[in-house]
Specification:
mainly alpha, Major facilitator superfamily (MFS) profile domain-containing protein, Growth Hormone, Chain: A
C-alpha cells in the first residue's frame, strides 16, 4: 500500500512538473511574472494596513478633508479590518476549490480599488469604515490565495529564489504608504495607490492557472499545451 501511494504521488508530481509554465527558451520568466502579479495584492494589503499611521493624525485635525474625527471614531479603523478578514478567510478557502487560484488573484484587486476610492471620495467617516471592511476582504483573499498560488505555480528553484516576494511586497507596501502619506494628502495618496490593483487586474489576465487546480479539474493536458508549446 505504501509503494502504491508513493507511486501515485510520484505520478502527480511528474504531471505538475510538466504543467508548470516556462518560456519558450526554457527560462523562468512566466513563473516570475506570476509571482510578481500575485505579490501586487500583498503590496496593496500592506499599504492599506499601514495607511492608518500617516492618515489618522491628519483625520484628527480640524482641517481634515472629512472634518475632524474623534479618537474613539479612529479606534474603529483597526478593528473592522481583522473582523472581515477572519470571516472571509473561510469563504475564500472554499471558493479556491471551485473558482481556481488565478481568478481569485485577479479578484483581490477589486476590493482594494473600492477601498481606495471610498477613501478618496469620502465626505465623512462612514465611507472610511466601509473601506476598512473591503480592506479586510482583500486581506483574506491575499492571505489565503497568494501564498498557495505561488507555491503551486513554481518549480523548486524559482520558489527558493522568489518565494519570499509576497512578504517583501507586503512590507514594501508598508514603507511606501508611510513615505507617500507623509508628503501627500490623504486623497492624493489614495489615488496613487489605485495603480497597483489596477495593474494586478491587467496582469492577472495573462498568468497561468495553478497546475494543482487544473489536475483536479482534469485540464492538465490543455494547460501544458498552452504554456509549454
Amino acid at each position: 500500500m505504501g509503494v502504491k501511494a508513493r507511486t501515485r504521488s510520484s505520478m502527480v508530481e511528474n504531471v505538475i512538473e510538466r504543467c508548470i509554465p516556462k518560456s519558450i527558451k526554457g527560462k523562468d520568466f512566466v513563473q516570475i511574472c506570476a509571482i510578481l502579479t500575485a505579490s501586487l495584492g500583498g503590496f496593496s494589503a500592506g499599504a492599506q494596513l499601514a495607511w492608518l499611521s500617516p492618515s489618522v493624525p491628519k483625520l484628527l485635525l480640524n482641517s481634515s478633508y472629512i472634518g475632524p474625527i474623534t479618537l474613539e471614531e479612529a479606534s474603529y479603523f483597526s478593528v473592522i479590518t481583522p473582523i472581515f478578514t477572519i470571516i472571509f478567510s473561510f469563504i475564500v478557502s472554499v471558493a479556491m476549490k471551485f473558482i481556481g487560484r488565478k481568478y481569485i488573484i485577479g479578484f483581490v484587486a477589486v476590493p482594494h480599488i473600492i477601498s481606495w476610492l471610498l477613501i478618496a471620495t469620502a465626505q465623512n467617516v462612514i465611507p472610511i469604515y466601509i473601506s476598512r471592511a473591503f480592506n479586510g476582504v482583500s486581506d483574506a483573499v491575499t492571505v489565503c490565495t497568494a501564498a498557495v498560488y505561488i507555491g503551486e505555480i513554481t518549480t523548486p528553484t524559482v520558489r527558493g529564489k522568489w518565494g519570499n516576494m509576497l512578504m517583501c511586497a507586503i512590507f514594501l507596501g508598508h514603507l511606501s504608504v508611510v513615505v507617500i502619506g507623509i508628503y501627500c494628502d490623504i486623497v492624493t495618496t489614495a489615488y496613487i495607490f489605485l495603480i497597483p490593483p489596477i495593474l494586478q487586474i491587467l496582469f492577472a489576465i495573462f498568468i497561468p492557472e495553478s497546475p494543482y487546480y487544473l489536475i483536479m479539474k482534469g485540464e492538465a493536458t490543455k494547460h501544458r499545451l498552452r504554456w509549454n508549446g
